[in-house]
Amino acid sequence: MCRVLDVSASGYHSWRRRPPSTRRQEDALLQQRIQGIHVRTKGRYGAPRIHAELRAEGVRVSRKRVTRLIRASRLSGKGKRHWVRTTDSEHVLPVSLNLLERQFHVHHPNQVWASDITYLPTREGWLYLAVTLDLHSRAVVGYAMEAHMHASLPLAALQMAASRRDPPPGLLHHSDRGSQYASRIFQEALARLRAKESMSRKGDCWDNAVVESFFSSLKRELFEDNIFENRMVARQAIFEYIEVFYNRQRRHSTLGYLTPHEFERQAKAA
């Protein structure tokens, strides 16, 4: 090998005996921390969020270096996946105007909430999930899960959010045009909260993009590699994802890679 590469044998053996450089030692330690974050987040983070997590732990490192070490470790975050929408807008119930108009950046909590419904696979059948997000911090403030998608499902998510947050009059609640949100019982619940209703335009998922993004993250990070045995197991996994991981640990690029709880805490202290 030395003859082919035109390298002296003494030079080769000297290189073999030489200890790893400081840079290589630092890279090895960084790789260990990166692998630890990857395991702790169950493979949900790619380079941007791993970089943000390292910075939050006090590690000063460039994103380019993190990306290089992730590739060297053959790690990757969970990629995007297409899921079918569940909206039933073919009904005769009255619908509201789109008052939100894609103004997703909200300066204070409990000013604008956004809601939607999706379905998730289990070996027992579909599990339907309704969520309510506060657009100020992207926090999930209410959620409900059932084996059906009747109007009582998003109503339960709204009631959880209201009991947790006690929103002031004038709250703007945004959803799609689904029959559940246009139903009498849901509209009456909004009236009791003295909230205003806003609905997406027909067939335009971008009008409710924040909730769509949440569903995309949940399905990619929780369900992509799993078909849960039954609805109860899926319920437990979703509860852990929302209450433990998403609201308290998951870093959001829109929030400057803060978690929803960190963002709300800093906003309150400002």
Automatic annotation (TrEMBL):
Organism superkingdom: Bacteria
Query: One Pfam family this chain carries?
Result: HTH_21
The molecule here is called Transposase
Organism this protein belongs to: Deinococcus aerophilus
Residue ranges constituting the Integrase catalytic domain according to the UniProt record: 105-268
The record, for PANTHER family, names:
TRANSPOSASE INSF FOR INSERTION SEQUENCE IS3B-RELATED, TRANSPOSASE INSO FOR INSERTION SEQUENCE ELEMENT IS911B-RELATED
